[in-house]
Specification:
Blueprint lengths: L1 H8 L5 H36 L9 H50 L2 H6 L2 H8 L1 H34 L1 H48 L1 H6 L3 H53 L6 H42 L21 E9 L5 E10 L4 E5 L6 H8 L7 E6 L2 E2 L5 H6 L1 E5 L9 H6 L7 H10 L3 H6 L17 H15 L3 E5 L7 H15 L3 E5 L11 E6 L2 E6 L1 H7 L2 H11 L1
Parallel strand pairs: 3-8, 3-9, 6-7, 7-8
Antiparallel strand pairs: 1-2, 1-4, 4-5, 9-10
Length: 582
């Protein structure tokens, strides 16, 4: 019931449009119910009068008025049907728009831990395919349910007025019909959910394969990718097979009950005529018209239940995302900071991910404003985790991280992250122009400010050599640019952001030595006057740091300047010698 309430809440902003759609649908149903009664009246009360001697000329105007009324009613019905078809569909699209806006906005609030567990393709499926099914239900569901209910009730009342014995016989068949519908609905619900899940798996597989197409080609594994996709595609085929099997049982069963209503009218009506009970052939014809009006909404019910199953299965998956709460939230009294000085403290920080594996253990560090701290050590030692905790991509579980003497959990996430810039090894560029990607550092920056940031990042001259210069499209994830170009664009982005705290996370490890040397000039300019954390495997990039910390899964093992650590002849010295050998 709570799910239905939440679904119904999306109608509230569009209540006027919904009432218009429903009102028009009711008028359409009323015309369909009234027509057989009016036809019966004309054939019973007016046409026989024309067969009398001398006819009934006084009834001709009445007949013309009735015909005109029927014509006008069907003309209005056509207009109402247009409103239902156009504005009703628009209602569904607007609700789909609201849901897509809500799910996308909600996804933006979820932490890194959420993205660690779910595949992009599955999220895409929930924001596209599922929502389309929901929009179809939002439009057709209430309309079909209302029209069907009103038409069936109206037809039953009219049939009782015409001949209660036939109506009662038809009514006795209804419980069996409804029981069949309810049982079929249960089976359709489970198979529909299975279809949705397998469709999401297919989308996830396609997204992964397309993103990794270059890797697949490099390893000549195209056929492996096809075979891997075929597994998911085959599972989807079987899920669809089960769904259509249950749907076929439902539709064929519904058609059978509709046929039985016709048989009941024919059988009971025939008995009444044979026994000369006063049941006329004319009333029999009218009953057959009502059976048609009665069975049509039953088919609508069939359509409604199919849409309901598909739509609510999609809505359930929609709610799974919407009900996922972020475990990283701003405190009610969180501070909005605009001028971080840059002092960083790690106080007895311990952390483990959801799998329980400990990454950091009782880490204590202090970085003064404007100083550079380098974190070195083997992979998995927690260096990147420390930076993620600083930016509150994850929250500290034990201990505290302070910036300018205040726990980072006491800052608003937006203002904290606005004061920290990060350059990673795997630079992500959005599909779009170079100008747009640099401007991402500060969305209100002018073109001139973007150019100045590019100059400071030593990428301006290369940009100007492109035919479209700053309007050059970078391709998906920046595929049209070299690694060095992408890295310098990310640096330009940070020059534009101008944060007081900077994180360089393996920022040059994927570059060749010459390119790394050129980009180091950009980094030197970028880090000037900023508190900087550097994570690096190439120790040549950290030798000028104010302090170097060697960290592994056991915690901090060594700390000091480059020269001091070499003199200790410990882990750092071994790492340094290994890099020289490489």
């Amino acid at each position: 019931m709570n799910k239905i309430k939440r679904f119904a809440a999306y109608y509230k902003p569009h209540l006027g449009l919904f009432l218009l759609d429903v009102g028009c649908a009711l008028f359409v149903a009323a015309v369909d119910v009234a027509f057989p009664l009016l036809t019966n009246y004309i054939m019973k009360q007016i046409f026989p009068q024309f067969d009398l001697p001398g006819g009934a000329p006084q009834l001709i105007p009445v007949f013309i008025v009735l015909l005109a009324a029927i014509f006008v009613s069907y003309l209005i019905r056509a207009v109402m049907q247009y409103i239902v078809n156009y504005w009703g569909h628009l209602l569904g699209v607007r609700i789909e728009y609201d849901m897509r806006r809500d799910i996308f906005s909600h996804i933006q609030t979820l932490p890194f831990s959420f993205y660690d567990k779910i595949r992009t393709g599955k999220l895409l499926s929930r924001a596209t395919t599922d929502l389309f099914e929901i929009s179809e239900l939002a439009h057709h569901g209430p309309e079909d349910l209302l029209i069907s209910t009103m038409t069936i009730l109206g037809a039953f009342i009219a049939m009782f007025l015409l001949e209660w014995r036939i109506a009662l016989a038809m009514f006795l068949l209804m419980p069996a019909c409804m029981l069949f519908v309810m049982k079929s609905r249960y089976h359709m619900k489970s198979t529909s959910k299975s279809v949705k899940e397998h469709m999401a798996n297919i989308n996830a597989g396609i997204e992964s394969s397309i993103s990794g197409a270059r890797v697949a080609k490099a390893f000549a594994n195209e056929q492996y990718e096809v075979a891997k996709f075929e597994v998911g595609n085959h599972e989807f085929l079987h899920a669809k097979d089960r769904f259509y099997k249950t749907m076929a049982v439902f539709n064929s069963g519904t058609d059978f009950f509709i046929a039985m209503f016709n048989v009941i009218v024919l059988a009971v009506g025939g008995v009444l005529i044979i026994r000369k009970t006063g049941f006329s052939s004319l009333t029999f014809i009218t009953f057959m018209l009502y059976v048609s009006a009665f069975t049509s909404p039953l088919k609508r019910f069939a359509s409604f239940f199919e849409q309901y199953m598909m739509g609510m299965a999609g809505f359930s998956r929609f709610l799974e995302i919407m009900d996922t709460k972020s475990d990283i939230v701003d405190r009610p009294d969180a501070i909005e900071v605009h001028d971080l000085k840059g002092k960083i403290e790690f106080r007895d920080v311990s952390f483990s991910y959801d799998n329980g594996q400990s990454v950091l253990s009782h880490v204590n560090l202090t970085v003064d404003p404007g100083k550079t701290l380098a974190l070195v050590g083997p992979s998995g030692g927690g260096k990147t985790t420390m930076c993620h905790l600083l930016m509150r991509f994850y929250d500290v579980k034990e201990g505290a991280i302070l910036v300018d003497g205040i726990d980072v959990r006491d800052y608003t996430q937006e203002s904290l992250r606005r004061g920290i810039g990060i350059v990673q090894q795997d630079v992500f560029l959005f599909a779009g122009s170079i100008l747009d990607n640099i401007r991402y550092g500060r969305l209100d920056a002018t073109d001139e400010e973007v150019v100045q940031a590019a100059i400071r990042a030593h990428i301006h001259e290369e940009i100007m050599q492109f035919p479209d210069q700053y309007q050059t499209e970078v391709g998906e994830r920046g595929v049209k640019l070299s690694g060095g170009q992408k890295q310098r664009i990310s640096i330009a982005r940070l020059f534009l952001k101008n944060p007081p705290i900077l994180i360089l996370d393996e920022a040059t490890s994927a570059l060749d030595t010459v390119t790394e040397y050129d980009i180091q000039k950009s980094f030197d300019a970028l880090t000037e006057g900023r508190t900087t954390l550097i994570i690096a495997h190439r120790l040549s990039t950290v030798r000028n740091a104010d302090e170097i910390v060697v960290i592994d899964e056991q915690g901090i093992r060594e700390r000091g300047t480059h020269d001091a650590l070499l003199q200790q002849n410990g882990l750092y010295a071994n790492f340094y010698q290994a890099t020289l050998t490489d």
